[in-house]
Amino acid sequence: MTSSGRGQSNKSSLVHDSAAAIKRKSALELGSGVLQSVGETSFLKLVQWIRAERLSTLPHQGSTWDTVLIRALYVAERLHKFETAIQGFAHGTSAAAELAYSHIRLLLELGHENSDALDKAFGLFYKSALTISSLLDRSELLSCTHEVQEQLCHMYTDLLTLVVEVAVYFYKTVQSMAEGEVSLDLYEIFGETLEATTNRRSHISDLIWSYQIESEADSTEDALSIDVLSKWLSPQDRVLEMLGSDHTTFTDQLAERTGLWFQENLTNFIKGSNECLLLTAPTGSGKTTLSAAIAERLQRPVARQSLQTTYVSIGAVPSEATSLHVVKSILYQLLQNRVGNLAL
């Protein structure tokens, strides 16, 4: 589907049309006055709001409200990066992005008194943002084929739908309950949507890899099947994959301020010249918990350096605690994180 108009004839109208439909549905469920209360929130306005909220509430480092604000900013930055990446071949991205930012702000304006419940909503958004982060780092390859462009437009609308639907559901639920009574299992309600986003991301990754490999191969027969390689490296069980390589599986369960005591050590290591930081401790002392907290901290710049993480939890699944599993997990994550990088 394409839009008409000078300079827009080759652009897909999928994002524009989907955003319009999503906005109408949201207005019907919330009431037009609710959305008008946050206005047309741009990326800059949302960032400014989050910064102003920090100055106003001064949340303690590592507190739940601090985590909510950190994740809200992270999600907004990834949505902005995604919008920038597809605006060359998708129509209506600015309006679609503003719709997402408005719903994020709508949730945040429920305030720090709802921080425990908001943490669940932004935890879900955060997982989605992490899913697309490494893909967006390969912006030069995101328009390599028409199919990749089309799938990216679908993925963007998937994320927009997730943000708006979670925001609407959550906002209505909070408004209908007394303070302190909110208890939502958002993963049970929206888990399928999150899974669909993850699957689409993998599909796009495979398309880009195939394009790169076929472009470099001397013949079709010489081309490596990225699908075969990916299936061989990836865990057969989706649950095992999440337990072994998704650090948020552990950080979502952490108490406030967990791991803060180690941040100075982490900063010193990154600033230093050592290439390995080895931590040893008895069984049950919290190594897995600390490693997840470190991986979480590394999603943001440390000592002015942005780093990419590969996370493997060896003890999460005893049957998978083998050298082969560790190597395959690292290689699989590199395949996902360095999309289209033939130098691997």
Rough shape?
Answer: globular
Which whole number gives the mean pLDDT?
Answer: 86
Helical amount among residues, as a percent range? 55-70%
Low-confidence runs (pLDDT<50, min 5 residues)?
A: 1-7
N-to-C span: 36 Å
Number of structural domains: 2
Assess the beta-strand content as a share of residues.
under 5%
Contiguous helical run count:
14
Radius of gyration: 21 Å
Annotation, overall tally of beta strands: 0
Q: Order of SSEs, N→C?
A: HHHHHHHHHHHHHH
Structural class computed from helices and strand pairing? mainly alpha
Q: Can you summarize the main beta sheet?
A: none
Report the oligomer.
Answer: single chain
Q: Which features does this protein show?
A:
disordered N terminus; 2 domains; single chain; mainly alpha; 344 residues; 0% strand; globular
Q: Can you walk me through this structure?
A:
- There is one protein chain.
- The protein has two domains: 203 residues, no CATH class; 115 residues, no CATH class.
- It has 14 helices and no strands.
- The N terminus is likely disordered.
- 32% of the residues are buried.
- The chain has 344 residues and is mostly helical.
- The protein is globular, with a radius of gyration of 21 Å.
- Helices cover 63% and strands 0% of the residues.
Give the topology, please:
Blueprint: H1 14-30, H2 32-38, H3 43-57, H4 64-86, H5 93-108, H6 115-136, H7 146-175, H8 186-216, H9 226-233, H10 238-245, H11 248-251, H12 263-271, H13 287-297, H14 323-337
Task: Give a short synopsis of this structure.
Helix content is 63%, strand content 0%. With 344 residues, the protein is mainly alpha-helical. The protein is globular, with a radius of gyration of 21 Å.
